[in-house]
Specification:
Helix content of chain B: over 70%
Order of helices and strands of chain A: HHHHHH
Order of helices and strands of chain B: HHHHHHHHHH
Largest interface: A-B, 67 and 72 residues
Helix content of chain A: 55-70%
Radius of gyration of chain B: 20 Å
Radius of gyration of chain A: 26 Å
Oligomer: heterodimer
Number of helices of chain B: 10
Number of strands of chain A: 0
Strand content of chain A: under 5%
Chain lengths: ~170, ~160
């Protein structure tokens, strides 16, 4: 890169200089050149900001303390979400579709896909909540399936960045 | 009207595909989750204690998870089960390797790096992995593992 000549590191395929800048490993003179370039180049500025966000998270992240009423608030939110989500997911797109109020003529393929997904998710949503109070029985094979699902969910949970953990 | 009926018919026909076996895993999990403690204990009583404890711990964690995160993980799980069985097994194997070979103190940063890597295109990934700070934190093998994991993870 040559920020002095106002050449853009991103456009020159030379992002290393920006990486070094974000890593604070440049000489002061080069740092000043990059900072000058960043004032004029939105693409580099966005790229550098993204890098710095990651590094800042790596450098500074600490788990926040959990408030005393955390569990109570969490359970209340779960209960509220379970009460409202199914009706809203069901009715809105179906009503609009049958009322023809979606201006659907140019976009009906997209509507068809969305409707199919809505129906499929509503009828075959594997995480659908069973009615409360109903006796539930599990076959041995189902226990193994549940175990496998929990194992895979645990694996996927482990792959998320800690900042994405809003609980646990 | 005919078009709409046709669309719905095709959609319902597609449900047959949607209901293929992998969904059974999630349904079985939901059934297990809905059981009261006594029912669950009876259902799991024949399992080895360590395995049963692990199931109960994971179930408890899942039940207590914030709705937004649960929804995000369900999405990842759906994408994961759309992958071919060999791709799924490959990812499981990479995660095992990550947990077994990455020192504990680096795993949190490893997860952050992974999350970031997944947002980058291949060229930017290479540059990010080759950056001095990544080299400071992760050795060659660890960076290769992170790259491979990012490439094989579901959306």
């Amino acid at each position: 890169m040559n920020a002095k000549n106002n050449q853009c590191p991103m456009q020159n395929g030379n992002a290393e200089i920006l990486l070094s800048y974000c890593a604070r490993s440049l000489e002061p003179e080069q740092t000043a050149q990059i900072e000058q370039h960043l004032t004029a180049c939105a693409e580099c500025r966005a790229w550098a900001a993204e890098q710095q966000t990651v590094w800042a998270a790596m450098d500074a992240w600490e788990a926040e303390p959990i408030s005393a009423d955390f569990d109570a608030a969490l359970f209340a939110r779960i209960a509220a979400a379970e009460r409202t989500s199914a009706w809203e997911r069901w009715t809105s797109p179906v009503r609009q579709f049958f009322q023809g109020g979606m201006g659907w003529r140019p976009v009906w393929p997209a509507v068809a896909v969305a409707l199919t997904l809505v129906i499929a998710l509503s009828i075959e949503n594997p995480f659908r909540t069973e009615p409360a109070g109903q006796t539930v029985k599990l076959e041995a094979q189902e226990i193994e399936q549940a175990e496998r699902a929990l194992e895979d969910l645990e694996m996927l949970r482990q792959l998320e960045a800690p900042e994405e953990e809003t609980s646990l | 009207m005919i078009i709409r009926v046709l669309i719905i018919t095709l959609g319902l026909a597609g449900l047959g595909l949607w209901a293929q076996p992998p969904a059974q895993q999630a349904r079985a999990l939901e059934k297990l989750r809905r059981m009261d403690p006594e029912e669950r204990e009876r259902a799991l009583q024949d399992m080895p204690p360590a395995r049963r404890r692990l199931i109960e711990q994971r179930l408890d964690r899942w039940n207590r998870m914030a709705p937004a995160r649960k929804q995000r993980l369900q999405g990842s799980f759906e994408n994961f089960r759309q992958m071919k069985p060999e791709q799924q097994e490959n990812l499981r194997s990479l995660v095992r390797k990550f947990n077994e070979t990455m020192p504990a103190e680096k795993r949190v940063d490893g997860r952050r790096a992974l999350t970031h890597l997944r947002k980058l295109d291949p060229e930017a990934r290479k540059k990010f992995l080759a950056s001095p700070r990544m080299k400071d934190r992760f050795n060659d093998g660890e960076r290769e593992l992170l790259a491979e994991m990012a490439e094989n993870m579901p959306d």
